[in-house]
Structures
1.
Amino acid sequence: MLLLVVSIGLAVSIGSAGLSLSDVWGILIYKITGIHLFGDWSDSDVAIVMQIRLSRVILAVLVGACLATAGAGFQGVLRNPLADPYTLGVASGSSVGAAFIIFFGLQSLMGLWTIPLVAFVTGALTLFAVFALARSKGAMAVETLILAGVIIQSFLGAFVSFMVSMSEGVVNQILYWLMGSLALRSWDHVYMLLPFLIVGVPLIAFFAHRLNLFAFGERHAAHLGVNVERTKLIVLVGSTLLTAAAVSVSGVIGFVGLVVPHLLRLLVGPDYRRIIPLSAIGGGIFVLWADTVARIALSPREIQLGIVTALVGAPFFALLLYRHKLGGKGGM
Amino acid sequence: MIEARQVSLTIEQTTVVKDMTFSFTKPGMYGIIGPNGAGKTSLLRLMSGAAQPTSGSMLLGDKPISAYPRKALARTMAVLQQGGLPPVGFSVRDTVAMGRFAFQGWFGDEREDPSPLIDSALNRMGLIELQHRPLDRLSGGERQRAALAQIMVQNPHIMLLDEPTTYLDIGYQVQLLETVHEWQRERGMIVVAVLHDLNLASLYCDQLIVMKDGSLYASGTPETVITKELVHDVYHADAEVIYTEPGGPPQIVLHRAGVGMKEKPILDRMQWIQPIGR
C-alpha cells in the first residue's frame, strides 16, 4: 500500500512537459490542502498536473487493479495460474465492440460512453458465448471452459484483424486501441471505471475463502459445503465486469491479470484472501509503472502501454515459470 | 440415516445404477464391494448428492438429498473422494482447517475457536509434525491422512469414503481403516466405504453391499456375503475362504485362474528366477 502511494507520487512527478519537482508538488499540495506552500507555476502547469498527469496516474492504478483482480478471480475459479481475462476471450470480446464502433465511426452515438458501453456489452456477450459453448448438462467443466475461451478468442481475433484490414484511415486508431493506451484519457474515464472497481474488487474478495476450497477441486469444495455453481457464476461475472470496464478505458493490456496474481502467489502463498486484495494493489503499481515507462521512454512520443506490459511481463513470466519449475513440482 | 428407494442412474444412455433399494439406519461400518465398473462410485455419488438419481429417490433423514443446501449437507455428511487431495500449496493445517467451512459465517468466522478440534484431528492422524508443510511436499499416504483429518473436523454424522486405501501400502491401509473404525465407534457414525480389497472389507465392515452391473447382488454381514461362490460369480476368480480364528471375519486366498490348488510345485518355478551367468 505504501509502495502504491510512493509510486503515485513519483509517477506524477515524471513527465515530458519539463515541470520541476517542486512545482508539481506545490500544485498538488495547493490543490489538496489549499495552501500555497512552494513553487512558482502558471495556470497551464496546474492543468498539466491535475488534468493530464494526475488523472492518468490514477487511471493507470485503477485499470491495473481491475485487471489483476479479474485475473486472480478467473484463476481461482479455473484453478489454473495461467488463466487470465484473455484466456476466456472477454478482453477480445470487448475489443471487438470497440473496433466495430471505430470502424463505423459511431462514436457520436452516445458520446464518451459509446465505446466503453459497447465494449462492455460485447465482452459480456463473449462470456455468455463461452459459457454456452462450455456448458453441458447444466454444469461447466473447467477444461471445457478454457477450451471454449480459446476458440472464441481466436474467432474474435480474426474478426478484429478483418476489420482493421478493411479500414483505411482509422487503422492507427484501432491498433492504438488494441495495443492498449492511457493517452488522452481524462477524469471522466476515472469516474467511469471507479464504480466497477468499488463494487467488483470487494465482491471477488468476499468469495476468496471459497476460492481457496476450489483449489481442491470443485466436487471436493462442494462436499465441504461450497455452493460451487453460484460461486463460479458470481466470481466469473465479477471478473468479467472488471475486465470489460478496464478494457473500455484502456484497450487490451496484456499480462497484468496473469503476472500480478502469479507473482503474489509465489510471495505470499496460495491463500486467495491475501492474493485478491494484494492483486488490486499490485496490479495498480504494475500498470502505473508500465504507463510511466510508456510515457517517458521515447518522450515526447509515446509507446503503447500494451507493448510495455508485454515486454516486461512476458520475460518476467517466463522467468517465474522457470524458477517455479526448478523449485519443484507446481501445484498452484 | 440414508435410504435408497429404487434408485437408478443413467448417464448417456448407460444405466450405471439399477433400481437399488437399501437403507443404512444404524451406526456402523458399511462396505460397498463389487468388480470394476459395477457402479460403486456412482452409488456413492448419489449418496453424496454429487449426482441426482434418474429415477427413484435417495433420502437423508426424511428428505431427498437434493433438498439440502450444500452447506447444510456438509454439516451432516463428509465425503472422502477417490484419489484424495491434489498437491496444492496450502499447508496441512490450513487444509484441515478448511474442513470447517460449513460451520463458518460469511466472513470465515466461527462462534467457537476451532483450533482444539483441528489440533486433535492432526494428532490423531499423526500430522502434528507435518502441519506447516505444504501438501505438494507430502507423500501420497500423508496427503490421504490430511484428507481424512480434513473431514474429521467436519464432525459428520455420516461419512462416505471412496476407496480410501488406494495408493497406501498394507500397513497404512490397516492403520487408516483402524482409525476410521475407532472414530466411527466413538461418535456412532454411519460410515459407508467403497472398498476394493475384500479382506479389508471383511475385517472392518459390519455390513456389506455387493454390486454387480449396477444392481444390488447381495447384502449382509461379511460371514454371509463372502463365500467361494460369490467371489466366483461376481469377480470370476477362484478363491478359498478361510477363517483365521473361530467366529472371526472370513478372509479369501486366491488361486490362479482356472488351475486350482494343484499347481506346479513352487521349486519348479524358482528355476526361472535364477540369476543369469552363475
2.
Amino acid sequence: MDEFSIFLQIIFWGLYAGCIYILLATGLNLIFGVMKVVNFAHGEFLMIGAYITATVFFLTGFNPFVILLLSMVVLVGIGAVVERLCFRPILGTGKLNEIFLSIGLIYIFQNGAAMIWGDAWQSVKSPYESMTVPIGPLSVPLDYIIIMVVTAAILCGLFLFLKKTTIGMQMRATSQNRKGAMLVGIDVERIDVISFGLGCALAAAAGTLWVVSGQVFNPYMGSIPAVKAFAIIILGGLGSIPGAIIGGLLMGLAENGAAFLLGGIWKDAVSFIILIVVLIIRPTGLFGGKEG
Amino acid sequence: MKYSVLVIVVLLIAAAFIAGCSQPASTQQTPAASQDVVRVGVIASLTGPASNVGTNMWQSAQVAAEKINAEGGVTLQDGKKAQITLIVGDDESTQAGGQKAATKLITDDKVDILVGGYSSAVTSAYEQTIAEYKVPYIVTGASSPIITHRTDIDTSYIFHHCPTTDTYGQYTTQFIDQVVRPAVNQKAGASSDRPFRLALLYQDTAFGKGIQTAVNDTITKNKLNIVLVSQQSFRMGESDFRTQLTAIKAEKPDALYLGAFPNEGAPAITQARRDIGLNTIFLSAENNDNAQFYKDVGQYGEGAIIESRFSPYTAPAGAVAADQDVFKQAYFARFGTYPDMMGASTYDGVFIAVKAIGNAGTTDKAAVRQALVDLKMPQVIEAMKDGTISFSSDYRESGFDLWMEQLSPDAQSGETRPAIVWPDNLKTTGFVLPSWYVAGSSS
C-alpha cells in the first residue's frame, strides 16, 4: 500500500463518516432553523432509527437499505409527537427550558430503548458485506458506496422539497422570519411539526447507515454523535443546511486525518479545535448570517 | 397551556419511573425462612454501557448463592449454619454510581463483605469508601493492577480475584513469541531469527494502556525478538477504527493485538478484515470471550486468538472442565443464556467470601480480612496456579492459569467457536495459521 493509496483511503473513511454527520446535523439544523429550539436529544432519534432498522431486519431479513425508508417514516411520526407534546408548549419560554426538556428526553429514550431492546451492544450484517468495488488503487466495500449514494439522494430530495414544494417554501419562510410567515398566513405550528418530523427522519437515516456500516449500537450510542452534530451546525452556521453539509464533511475528514496523523485520541478533539478556530475568525460559523 | 405543562410533568415522571425500572439501586435475593444470614454485597453495572457484563456478574453471584445455600450455607462459630443473602448495588457504569452503590451497601444494607466491581476506573473511584469503612472486598471484574497497587489510600481490605492487564500482556506476548512467531516465519519462508512485527490497537484508558505497557515491558525484559511496528489508540466506546487500521496495515504487521472491550474488539476485527483487507492474526484480551463477541464478530473471527480463563463455548483439558460445565448449565437453566468470565470470577468470588467467613467463624470484618489473607482453598470453577486460590502477600492478587484460544468457523451457528491452543497442559488442539493469512513485511 503506497502513500497515495493510504491518503485516498483516509479521505474515503472521512467521507463515509461525514455522510453520517451530515444527515444528523442537517436534521438538527432543519429543526433549529425553523423552530430555534435546542434539542440535545437529537442523537436519541439516531439511536431509535438504528434500532428500528435492526429490529425489522432481524424479524424479516429485508434489505436494511430498504428498511431505511420505514425507519424514516416511523421517526417522522415520533418526531411529530415529541414536538407536539414536548417542545411546542415551551416554545419561546427560554433556552433553559429547552435544554432541560431535551435532557429529560434523553433519559426517557435511552431507558425506554434499554427496556425494549436491552442494554447489550448489537450489530447488523449487511447483505453486501462481502462485496467490494475497485476505485482507483482502492478496493472499497460496496456498502460505503451505497451509503454515500443514499446520503446524496436524501440531500437532493431535501433540496428539491425545500425549493419546489409549497410546504418546503413555507418552511424556508418560517426559518427566515417566523412572524412574517405568520402574517402572510403560514400555519407555523404545522410547519414546526413537519420540520421536527423531517429532522428526526434524517437522524433515523443516519442511524440506519451507522448500523449497516458494521458499527455496533446500544441505547447510549446517540450522545456523542449529538454533541458532534451541535459542533457541526455551529461550525457551519446555525440554521444553514449547506453549512451542515460542509461542516459534516469537514468534521469527518478532520477526524480521520487527525486519527491517522496524530493518533486516535485526537479524533474527537480535532473537530472542536477546528470549531474554536472558526468561531474566533468567524463567530457566526462558515455559512451563518449576521445574527447566526 | 396548562394541559401541555401537565403532559410535560407526566413525561418527566415517566422518565424517572422508567429510569427507576431499569436502574435498581439495590436489589436483595433473600433465602427463605432464614434466621441467621450473612449479607454479601455485589457491586455490578446493571445499567449503562457495561450492563451486559454487570448483569452477567450479578446473575452468576445468584447462581453461586443458590448453590451455597442449597448445600447448607456457611458454618459460623459453634457450628451454627447461616444462609447467605445477596444484595446488589448498581454502579450504573459510572464513577458516581459506583460511589453511591458502595456507600449504600455498606451504610444502609450493612453488608458483611463485598464482591464484584467492573471497570478499573469505576472501581477505583469508590475504593476510598471501602478503605474508610474497612469492609472486605473481593474485586472480580476490574483488571487494572492499580486496584491493589495504589498507595494513595489503604487498600488492605481489597482482594483482587481477576487477572490484571499485566498478566494479559505477559501471557499473550509469550504466546506470540513461542507459538505464533515460529509459525509465521515458517509460512513466510523466513529464517527463524526474523523479528516478529506486532501492532497494537488499544483503548486509551487504564485498561488499554495497561496492556500496552505490559506488552512493551515483556518484550524488553525478556529480550524477545518482537518489534512493535505500530501502536494506535482509540477512545473508549469507539466503533469506527478504519483509519487506525489503515495506518496499522501500512506498517505490514504479522499480527495485531487489540486492547479492547468486546463492543470495540468485534467491530475492529470486522472492519480490519472486511473494510481494510488486513488479513492477519488478531489477538484479544480475555474480556472478549463472551457470547455477544462471537455473535458480533461472526465469520470474521476465524483464526483470531483470545487470551482467556473462562469461555462460554470451551473448557480446558483437566479438572475444572466438569465444574465449569455444571456452572454453565445452572446459569443457562436459570437465565437462558451462558455466563461470561467476569460472571465466572464473581461466582468464584462468592465462594471465596463464604469460605473466608467460614474460616473466620464470624462476620467481624477484621477477622474476615485476616481469613482472606490466610486463605488457601481449592480452585472453584476457574483454573488457578497449583489448583489453589490464595492471595499474594504483597498486592493480595490471586494467581490464574490463563490460556490462549483460537477461533475457527462453526457451521452450525454460522459464527466461530474457540479451542484452547496454549499452554500444553490445558490445550485441546494446536495453533494453525488460516489459509488467507498474509505475513507482514518490512519491505
